[in-house]
Amino acid sequence: MSPLLELIRITRRFGNLTALSEVSLRVNTGEVFGILGENGAGKSTLMHLLAGALQPNSGQILLEGQKVVISSPRRAFELGIGMVYQHFKLVGTQTGMENLALFAPGGWWRGVSAEVRQTADRWRRELNWNVEMHRPVERLSVSEQQRIEIIKALSLGGRLLILDEPTAALTPAQVDSLLSTVRQLAERGLTVLLVSHKLAEIKSVCDRIMILRQGRMTLEAAADDVSTSEIITAMIGKDISLPTAARAPQGGRSVLELEHAEPKHRGRHSFGRDRSVLKAASLRVNAGEIAGICGVEGSGQIELSAILTGETDAAGRLVIDGIPLTKFGARRHLKDIGVIPADRQKEGLILPWSIHNNLALKAHDRRPFSRWGILRRRGWSDHHERIKRQFDIRAGDLRMPVVGLSGGNQQKVIVARELELKPGFLLAINPTRGLDVGAAAFVMQQMLTARDGGMGILLIHDDLDELLRLSDRLYVMYAGHLYETPWPDATRRQIGAWMLGNELESLRSGPRGDDGFRDRRNGPVQP
Amino acid sequence: MVLAGLGELTAEITGVIDIGIEGIMLSGALAAFLASFASGHGMIGLLAGILSGIVMAGIFAVTCIGMGADQIVVGTAINLLALGATGSFWMLFQNWTQSHNLVIHLARNEAFNRIPIPWLSQIGFAGPALFDQYGLVYFTIVLCGMVGWALNRTRLGLVIRGLGDSPETCAAAGIPVKLSRTLATLFAGGCAGAAGAYLSIMQTHSFAQNMTDGIGFVVLSLVIFGRWTVWGLISGCVLFGAINSLQQTLQTARYTSHSTVLHAMRHLPFEIFQMLPYLAALIALAIFAGSRPGPKYLGKNWQADS
Q1: Which of A83, A209, A231, B223 has the fewest Cβ atoms surrounding its Cβ within 10 A?
Q2: B119-137 pLDDT, tens digit each
């Protein structure tokens, strides 16, 4: 029997760049096939070829042994190929049903036809999903939108389902549910192509996997036959082990002290409701250690980081590097603390600006970068070239805008800028989010090196594995309260329970029993 | 006005904001007048008006949708171009007719006549206003219903709305984004051209320099006021029309009425009254704008990546 889908020596070039080079693969009916690769390895190009959004320069696509040309997205639907993009293709103001009808074939003058409705309902019943189809999709949660996308792809295609980074925006529980749906579909005879850069997921759900690196296929195997390290080697060309460092010695001088801090203005538009999550947070970060904060998203992490960066005025006491700060002081001192923000594109970089300018954003008013208020760009070049080498920023020219860099390289620019200032205290929020294995390992290694150099780092991270790997001490944040854990003398299971608010009584909530704090709390911030 | 608004509405829902609508109406008015003057047939004038609207919208579509120029800038340019071109053309035309001793006026039968609908046009107060009108007005009413139906009840409408809210989704659905937007823009141009023709060959039987007098811009604001719905647009136009006739009545009434309040208004410059409908449009916009955002990609050009 011929395989459902077969690609023979597919090549696709964009100008000088060869995105895919002679890639061949066979996917059998009823199989879950995983495609792995780092960012820029050619995964999305391959997906776009199958979805009809791009055409190959050479090579053949066979569907059940028949040569096909997927000339347009519509042709892909006709061939039974349904695609779920990482960034959903849904019109936010329209309902789920209307979105389905928008894609459905048929005349211009028909509305949401009975046929569309029936197909959608059939898949909904089959998957046992209770998705709201009659509300504008922008009012639905991300996972509900994804379910609509999957229903859409199944209704249109129904033979081959392609999922592009489907778990990127989901919580762990939603990921599990999605992956079991994928298995369920495969058992029903549907073929699923799963594109991801998350190893564990791919290994757990796929029958066979293929790995792309720089447009070439470097590995194709049954998922059970390969080890994680083989996969990593095939993905990035060398074996990268995630960095682990010995725990730092305890008891350095403190670089950050926070006592009973909470936002001063409680939600400007709250109309009396208390919308601020964070309540009387107290914590301490010492020089030469990484203090981690774990917690379910929305437990107060955003408010806490806003206080530390001076974006929000705080009640309470904030001491950075031994200097107590007033609210104005916090703003001025923002230049003396390092911040790796959660959203690198919105808060960390000025996207249309050059790498040069972005690297200089914080240090431009110091020698040798400027003198008497005039920028000395000649001084920048050597310095920035050195940074580029040291931080392995892959860019042709430092004058090119950062918007053209990959996510990993953008993050490296931020990390380089913040660490080069050699601040006593660094706040890092989800520093490896969205990065591939190589870049993530690099960023983690840089943070460890900085720690060993005496920097105190507060790490707020939603990847628990990495957080535990890096942290010397660990706080748990639950419903706006901070609790110090006895990590590393605590099990992962125990930490998971604390994150969900269980058994918190055993933990200490910041410094306690000091009446002095209570007085200060309601008074003005100490000068 | 409703007609021009209808076209603009459709274009804006697909994400194209054509602020050149004023200029398109103006060129439609002139083209319609000249064509019916030359041919002696009102219908040819109307067709010429529509055609010139489509041509003007075509210029807009090529520069903005095709070549990616900024829609506001090009729209402004079209307004200025139309104002200048129609003005100079009109002056040339006047010179020419004077030297040939021709009368610039359309004979009554050359332009369209009102078509009273028997029976209905006799009904009391509203009868003549609604049912003793030009054919184009009836057509507009029918078109309103059709566009409203198409937008809300058909796949075409889903696509049109999708184009303005999420063009990349439409591209993924295999819909040619640029072509569809161009068609919507041309439709808007045709509607605006016909609306211009209405002004010249039906309402006034003549042309005057800058005769549209800002109506195109009012239409733009009424589309926003109506929150990009056909019914909202119609109610906006009715409201604007009502305030407009109110100010006209006020202007005459202050000389004829015996009321002291109205009498006192005699000393106000008449421009104050003319200002009223526009002021009302502005206030309405300030109140209603922001309550529901329009198409997300309004005024943003779209390029397929790679």
Answers
A1: A231
A2: 666 665 555 666 667 778 8
